[in-house]
Each structure stands twice: as structure tokens, then as C-alpha cells.
Amino acid sequence: MHLYNAWLPPPVAEESKREKESFSFVVKSVKESWQSDDPESVYSTLKWISIIDLFITAKSELSLDDVEALVNVGLEVFHKSENKLYPQVRWGVIIVRLLAKYGKKLTLKVQWRPFYDNFVNTHFTRNAGPEGWRLRQRHFEAVTSLVTSCRKFFPAGSASEIWSEFGSLLENPWHNSSFEGSGFVRLFLPTNLDNQDFFSRDWIQKCIDQWDSIPNCQFWNNQWADIISRCIKSYSSIDWECFFPVLFTRYLNMFEVPVANGSGSYPFSVDAPRNTRFLFQSKAISPAKSIGKSIVYLLKPGSSAQEYFEKLVNLLEQYYHPSNGGRWTYSLERLLHNLVFFFQKRLQREQKNLDDARRAELFLGRSEITAFVKVVLKLIDRGQYSKNESLAETVAVATSVLSYVEPSLVLPFIASRFHMALETTTATHQLRTAVTSVAVCGRALFLASSFETDDVGNADGFVDLLMISLSNILLGMDANDPPKTLATMQLIGSIFSNITVIDDNQGGLLSAVSFSEWLDEFLCRLFSLLQHLEPGNVLNDGIHTSATSGTFLVEDCPYFFCMLEILLGKLSKPLFSQAVKKISKFVKTNILPGAVVEVGLLCCACVHCNPNEAAVHIIEPLLMSVISALSGSPGTGFGGRGTLNGLPSFKVCALNQGSTYHILLYIGQESGPRSK
Hints:
The protein has 676 residues and is mainly α. It is built from 33 helices and no strands. The radius of gyration is 31 Å and the shape is globular.
């Protein structure tokens, strides 16, 4: 049983065990609905697709034999319902989802030729029908995704057949057919174990020569870079050393960074035909993705790939500087993302295959890991202050991942940047970046502080960093500086999510902190922040529509409510009583039409963490305030009890109590069944 299902109520959890039988019934029903000699029967199978989608989404255990049988039936339906684009799109999408979840556990044999025939007949030779271009585009996306998912199941000999089929299109590099040929090779060529005999050093050399035949063409570069990257990942037995100079030169050229005052674009670029670019464009194909994958899987003990990688980074790192931004920033940001992503993925795979003696000599050792992290830190150092939001977020994520891989290098780097930012607090962008870095590496800092080893370094320094963070971070809560405020809340949530219980009497890493005093200061800063928030939307008559809008605390990111839930949920009983009394006093004595949503979420967090005590100190006073405001309001007149004498005073009371109504509304909406 999946861990998620174990939390279900016992009767529901017991019933979920029968989902394997239910799925078998669905597969049987699909087979009965489909008649291979009647293509029109494909429409009777469509009603089962939504049900299959539910089984894919559910966390239930299914029989792999049933999954394999369903994939085979789905492929048969897909191929035999030619020119019926809508059923093909529906079945293509659901097969891709099945293979994404269960593909590594299945043993299928899928032929590539039917996909190619379908692709050509629909998008190359067939005129547009009544279905329209939108459906044709969806069909194209479904076919390409299906080929990408199924090519790992192509049988032995498929790679040779595919190369023979499309190799002739590549003979004349100046003919448009060469672009189609490269697109078909990239799309169909399998790099699985069944076809590994086809790939050799001579064939790689032939591909490199083919790649060099058309210079300065983005489409051409993307196709061949993707092919080479998949070969590098799958066939580590090939000697790639001799290809390093030409590969890394190509990689540098593909980024099109400017030299001196140049624009960075190719001076004499070659464009592929528009129709070819449309047919073979793929969101999964990115030069930065192919380059990052190639570099990571080229790294081996004793290989010179690390040296070439360092030279490439030395040339590119200046363009990560905030002053050197441009249209190339996106591709450089994607490079950093993919370098860290594939490096993490490779390390995970190697840790799971430590007993594989045949490949153990190719696994990365501690020296190779350290060298890689040192080089990537150069890009992080340059890019962490970038004005580009996407690059800044990627740098933060990369820092978080590498802090677990090589904490001895990353954590001291983070600590030094944080201390530097505190010394120059006027540079708010530096403080925000430093705070975000500490936040995303919070758990790694706690782990390093708990286990003092030579690999990590001085654990006392990391404890001091956490204590300094708690002592100084409250200064970052400023209504006039939203980015710094949100980073502050992210750091508070990160620190306290790693603490079991917040109590002044407990020991641990932060035992020297007086949490009672810190909590008072935090609430004081929070109340001041809420009082100075500016409304996000003001009507002409001056009445703020606070029930449907909020400030940057709730519109820009979820850190505000998450921080409150984490902090209040970890407080000990005395500290929670201390906090909820102050919050209750603040809510009762302040009317904040510009921060109704925020105050409502503050009350919701209290209700989530301790419904009983929150009901006494927050919900009851709010309800009494509403009842008191309604005491002089007019009735409906039904039953003879109505009066209109109190109408003017009611208007005044309703205006003053509008915030209270909305706070209670948010408590009811957000709390749900968890509150009492």
C-alpha cells in the first residue's frame, strides 16, 4: 500500500486494495470495446480514458501485466485509427502518461515504422481537413511525445534502420531535406541497450562531421546537440576524449554571447524552413539542456572533461554578472539549472548502483564532485545578485542542491555572503539574496551544525550563523521593501521547520536564544508591518475591497501564511498562549481595511495550530464584536418585529465592523473541518 493511502480512514484504505481488480476490469472493458476490424469502434473506447487517468493519478498499486496489456491495446488503437485525429490525441496523451509512470518497469517491444507513417501521412502529405490547425497541432505534439516515450522500447536493429532511412536526406547539407533528416534522426533514433552495438566511435565521428557541415544554424545545432547528448549519457564505453575540443567549441558557439561590442548573434546565420522548424520544434529541446547533460555525463575519473568544463565556465561566467545581462541570460540560466539537475540525477543513479562492478570505475569520486562544485560556484557567485528574477531563483535552487552534495564548500560560501550583507545593510538586494540563500540551505546548515566533521568544517560557525540570522532577520520586515520582507519570512519558515518544538527550556543548537523575547519582538514587527501595508485596490469612494484583494504578502508568494503556520505550530503551549493573547489584543484593537486578508490569515494560522485556545481568544471575541454591532440593526419586518429606527447607526456600525466580518469569513473558509 502506498504511504498516502495508509493515512486514509480504515474502511476507505481497505477498499483501495481492490483497485488492482478494478483496473483489470477497465483493461478488459477497453479490449471488449475495441474491434480491430472496425476502426469506428475507437470512439467507444474514449469513455474509458478519463477512468484510466484516475488510476494514473491515484497512489494505488496496479498489476504491471495489466498496464503492459493496456499500453499494447492503446498503441494498436492509435495506429489503426488513422485520420481520426481526436481519438489519436486522446490515446496518445494517456499512453505517454502510462509510460512516464510505469515505463521503467515494463518490457515492451514497439516498432518505429508505424509512428513514422502516421507522422508523414498526417503532417507532410495530407491536406488540412475540417479538424482545424489547433487539433493538428495537438496531434503533432501527441505523436512526438509518444515517439519520445516509446523509443526506449524499439527492438534491436531499429537504430540501423532509422539511420539508413534518413541518412540519405543528410547528404546535401544545403538542401532543405537535410533539416528534415536531422529532425527525424533526433526524434526517432533510440539509444537503448538493445541498439548499443550500432553506436561506435566511427559513427560519432560521422555525426560530428555532419554537424560541422552547416555552420551558424540554431535549428541544426539543437538537433545534433540533442543526439550527441543522449549518446554521451547512454554509451559511456565510447572514448569521447578525442571529441572534447570540437564539442566544447561548439557548445561555446551555441550560446552566442557577445565579444567586445558585438551583438553576439551569428553574422551569417542559416535559417531552417519555417514548416520544418514548426514540425520539429520541441519544448524539451534546448541547447542548454543538451549541453548541460553532455558535460555532466562526460565527467569521469582521469578524464580531461573537467579541464574543458573549467575553460568554458571561465569564458561564460562574466555574462552571469548583473551588468552583463542580455538576451543570452536565459540560455545561461538554463545551463546552470541543467548542470545541477543532471549532476544530482547522476549522483542518485550511481548511489543506487554501487554494486555494479562493471561501471564502478566510471563513478564520480570525491575529487571529481568537489571539482565540479567549485566550478559551478563561480557561476553562482556571479549570478546570485542578478536583476533577472529567473536567474536569481535558479541560483538559489542550485545553492540548495549543492549544499547537500558538498557542504564543506557551499555552506562557508553562504555564511561569508550573509556576513557581508549584514555589514552593508543599505544594499538591500545583497541582503535579500543572502537571506534567501540561508533560507534555501536551512536544513543543510542544521545538519552540518549537528554533526561536526572534517568534511563539513566548523560546526560552531554554522550555529553562530543561525543565531545571527534569528537575531537580525526581524529587521528585514519592512512594508516599503516587499522582496526583502518575503525573503525574511522565507528564512523564518526555513529555520523553524527544522526545529521540533520551540521552547525556552529545551536544549539543542539554539538553546542560547530566548524565544520568549524573540517572539515578542517578532509579533511587534509583524503588527507594525500589517499597520503600514498599503491597500492593493482602492475604489473611487474610498472603500477598500479587501475581501477580494490583498497586498504583496498574499499576492506575490505563499511565504506569509506558511511561515505563520510553521512558527505557531512549533510553539510550546506557554509560548503559544503568549502569542495568541497578543494577536487577540491586536485584532480587537485595530481596524486595518488595507490588510484584512493578512489579518484573516493570521487568525487562521492560530486556529489551525490550536483550535481550542484560538476559539477562546480570537473567535469568541470576534463573534461578540459582530453580535454587538448587529444589536441595533433593523430587522426584516417579518413577524412584526422589524423597525427602521436604527438604520443610520447600523450603517456606521457595519462600516466599522466590515473588517471583522471579513476576518471571520476567512477563518471559516481557510479552517474548514480542522477548527471547532
